[in-house]
Amino acid sequence: MTIAAFQSLSLAEFLQLPETKPASEFIAGEISQKPIPKGRHSRLQAKLSNEINLVTEEAKIAYAFTELRCSFGSRSIVPDIAVFLWQNIPFLADGEVPDRFEIPPDWVIEIISPEQKTNKVIGNILYCMDRGSQLGWLIDPDDKSVLVFLRDRQPKPILMENNDTLPALEGIELNLTVDRLFGWLKMGS
Fold first, then answer.
1. What is the pTM of this model?
2. Residue 6's pLDDT band (cuts 50, 70, 90)
3. Structural domains for the chain
4. 9-25, pLDDT tens digit by residue?
5. 3-state secondary structure the chain
């Protein structure tokens, strides 16, 4: 993960730079590149976003976007999964999804990678929560736990493990336990 400091670079100037793969984020004047997702990260990200969309998209409740750039306040971040309630998706006049999202997601989900600094990722979740996100999850595949951030309980997150049922946004009936979430990692038996 490369980090470069640009003292005079603004968010608007950062957004004019070409996209990188993996994506770069702009936080407090610094550009940092996210790590390349590994197998467990990729599996959880794809499966979880699909599960959310299965219960939300057809009914137009919400939509889970993967690796969507969200630029608001003084940051431009790329959460692993950004869930927007349907009425908060900034659709274009023709009903298409825009390329730019300039609001925080209603539900921000991050899956920690070994190369990431946990506090930096938590900082992004808290930044989202301070600016309107209702729910945040920090998924840790190593200890098979999920740190849940609820808007009405800030700054006190809840550590959820084992058979704990994970909260979702109001109106999203996900019914997902921590064990089931991490059970998705077992594909070979």
1. 0.89
2. very low
3. 37-183 (3.90.1570.10)
4. 899 999 999 999 999 99
5. CCEEECCCCCHHHHHHCCCCCCCEEEECCEEEECCCCCHHHHHHHHHHHHHHHHHHCCCCCEEEEECCCEEECCEEECCCEEEEEHHHCCCCCCCCCCCCECCCCCEEEEECCCCCCHHHHHHHHHHHHHCCCCEEEEEECCCCEEEEEEHHHCCCCEEEECCCEECCCCCCCCCEEHHHHHHCCCCCC
